Amino acid sequence: MKASTALALALTSLFVCACGGSDEREEGWGSSAQAAIAPVKEEIEVPPPPFSEGIFPCSDCHDPTLPVNTKRRQLSMAHQEIDLKHDVEHRWCLDCHSATDRDKLHLASGELIDFTESYKLCGQCHGDKYRDWRAGVHGRRSGNWDGHKTYLLCVNCHNAHSPAFKPLQPKPPPTRPHGGDQ
Amino acid sequence: MSKSCKNEGCGSGAGCGGAHAATEELDPQVEEATRREFMCVIAGCAAALGVSGCSEITHTSFFQKRFRELGPEERASIVADLEKEFSEKFGKPVTISTQPAREDVQFGYALDISRCIGCRRCVYACVKENNQSRDPQVHWIRVLEMDKEKGIDLAHANAYYDAETVPRPGHFYLPVACQQCDQPSCVKSCPVGATWKEPDGIVVIDYDWCIGCRCCMSACPYGARHFNWTDPSVPAEEINPKMHYLGNRPRMKGVVEKCTFCVQRTREGRYPACVEVCPVGARKFGNLSDPNSEIRYILEHKRVFVLKNELNTRPRFFYFYGL
């Protein structure tokens, strides 16, 4: 009796373990492990990032031969218009922008990425949104439901320096029945 | 023009055909024959009397069968006639597709009410894409503003809100259009079979067969159907020349119209206009039969509901909380 209960328990726990490593988690871990071995170049088509006019490439002003002041400080010579409202206590320019290659962003790992891949950078903190975005649930897509589609980048809707979605002016309300005399 | 004549015919038919009522109900074929005979008589009388209003109707358009009964050649000829008529009317080349449903496709739609900000961009993109009448105004999408404290309360929702900016504090928004029900009460209520569910799930209307009785409008629990009380007007420069016979081709006075999931776009694989225009990306569309589609991901991973679930209409339009 006891032995059979123990066996049943063991079997149950085995079953639970097997279910615990559900496909979602396994897939997640599996793919990242694979990515670590052989990075897969993803083909996600995105529109150009919404740069302010004349601001890119950054190296036009940030001469790569000059030393970079990496100290956190109030900017006084340029970019004063940037009002950082993005976890400002913990973030500063060089947490996202690369100090070594001025035309790139960098991930927490130090890996340099282009501005067109900025979603990877955002996804480091906003993992749930990143997952939904890649599944096509968060964010806006255009093109074909059944084929080629363009994803908007995070920064096409959220200003990276102040990411809260800004209120919009609504289009006019519908006219009421009977010519609006109600 | 042809529509108003057909309506007159049917209107008087209802009165005159009273004696046949019993047989008509028993056998649809008899009903069909009777209706057709009656129309012939009326048309003959009209021609003999020289009724001025009917002079533009061709024999073909007047005696056109319902869309589903048309053979490929008849369809082609009707479409060619319509294309010619509209191209002349609007001064640009108009194409009218009759592309049927794809076998492997079941359309579904999902709207994230945690994201919608009620900006009504979808409403006007829909009007433009689907050639809805500007005056009198026809909107297939109505955006309802609701109180966050009260939750979803259709009886007290406000579709006429106006503000400098949206979302207004304390409110959320619920856009409503045709829910493309799997068990559409509108289809059941149509006395002439002018509206039906296509194999890919889109509920469509044959505008040439609609008699304008508006039974479908009273049967629809979502207020998604709209009636053309007068001749619809769309400025020629704003007309969308890419049309579908069962979708955005210009309608006429006296017929009912509604959202078709942009049949002219989606049957070609494109997203509906409202999906592409939504600035917050709240609108999602795809193939329910494809396990890798966005729509399936939402149904499997998000908190999803349908409007008026208790009515068992089984909408293909889902609302969800993306947050």
Task: Characterise the protein shown here.
The complex is a heterodimer of chains A (182) and B (323). With 182 residues, chain A is mainly α. Chain A has a domain at 55-62 and 83-163. Chain A has helices spanning 2-20, 23-37, 93-96, 118-125, 127-135, 154-157; strands spanning 105-106, 112-113, 141-143, 149-151. In chain A, the strands form two sheets. Chain A has a two-stranded antiparallel sheet. In chain A, strands 3-4 form a two-stranded antiparallel sheet. The radius of gyration of chain A is 24 Å and the shape is globular. With 323 residues, chain B is α+β, with helices and mostly antiparallel strands. Chain B folds into two domains: 1-54, no CATH class; 64-323, 2-Layer Sandwich (Alpha-Beta Plaits), CATH 3.30.70. Chain B has helices at residues 2-16, 21-26, 28-49, 59-62, 72-90, 121-129, 185-189, 215-219, 263-266, 273-277, 294-301; strands at residues 95-97, 107-112, 142-147, 171-176, 195-197, 203-205, 226-227, 242-244, 256-257, 283-287, 303-305, 317-321. Chain B has a four-stranded mixed β-sheet. In chain B, strand 5 (195-197) and strand 6 (203-205) form a beta hairpin. In chain B, helix 1 (2-16) packs across helix 3. Chain B starts with a helix and ends with a strand. Chain A binds chain B through residues 132, 135-147, 149, 152, 157, 165, 167-176, and chain B through 105, 112, 117-121, 123-124, 137, 139, 142, 159-167, 266, 269-271, 275-276, 278-281, 284-287, 293-294, 297-298, 301-302, 322.
